[in-house]
Every structure is written in structure tokens, then in C-alpha cells.
Design a protein that fits this description.
By secondary structure, the protein is an alpha+beta fold. It has a domain of 50 residues. The chain contains three helices and two strands; from the N terminus they run αββαα. It has a two-stranded antiparallel sheet. A hairpin with a 4-residue loop joins β1 and β2.
Length: 82
């Protein structure tokens, strides 16, 4: 993977950043499109959702969607003493 461009951004109090327009055009991020945020030990990647491999989908599933299955009294009891 070759570095094509580097820009800087400032993180707001809410943890938000703006992706510079030149980079949005370069990687085809369009207004309203969904992106995946992948965190590694030494870096973070932003990728268009259509580039995410189906095998990785479980790793990026939202807390909200997982809570439907895992946020139960039974799960709390099972994990209580671990």
C-alpha cells in the first residue's frame, strides 16, 4: 500500500474530524456515504463500507446491534464472575 497524500485534521471536543475535500475526492467518499473505522495497535483506517470484506463485518458490528443479543440478564449473570 503506497501513501498517495497526507493531510492534517483537528479533533473537536466531540471527537469529530473533517476529511479534507481533496482526500474525499481521492477516495470517493461522498456526502452521506457510510464508512468503516478500523482501529489497529498503531493506526486507524477509514474505509468505504463497500470495501469491507464480509469476514470483517462481525468485527465492525455496532454496539447497538450486538446489544440486542448480548444485553440480557442471562448474559450479565454468565459474565458476572469472570
Amino acid at each position: 500500500m503506497n501513501l498517495i497524500e497526507m493531510r492534517t485534521a483537528t479533533i473537536t471536543e466531540k471527537g469529530q474530524i473533517s476529511i479534507p475535500n481533496e482526500l474525499r475526492k481521492l477516495v470517493a467518499f461522498k456526502t452521506g456515504s457510510k464508512i468503516a473505522i478500523l482501529a489497529f495497535d498503531d493506526h486507524v483506517e477509514l474505509r468505504p463500507m463497500n470495501q469491507i470484506n464480509k469476514k470483517l463485518f462481525g468485527a465492525i458490528a455496532s454496539e447497538k446491534s450486538l446489544a440486542k443479543t448480548w444485553n440480557t440478564k442471562e448474559e450479565d449473570k454468565a459474565w458476572k464472575n469472570l
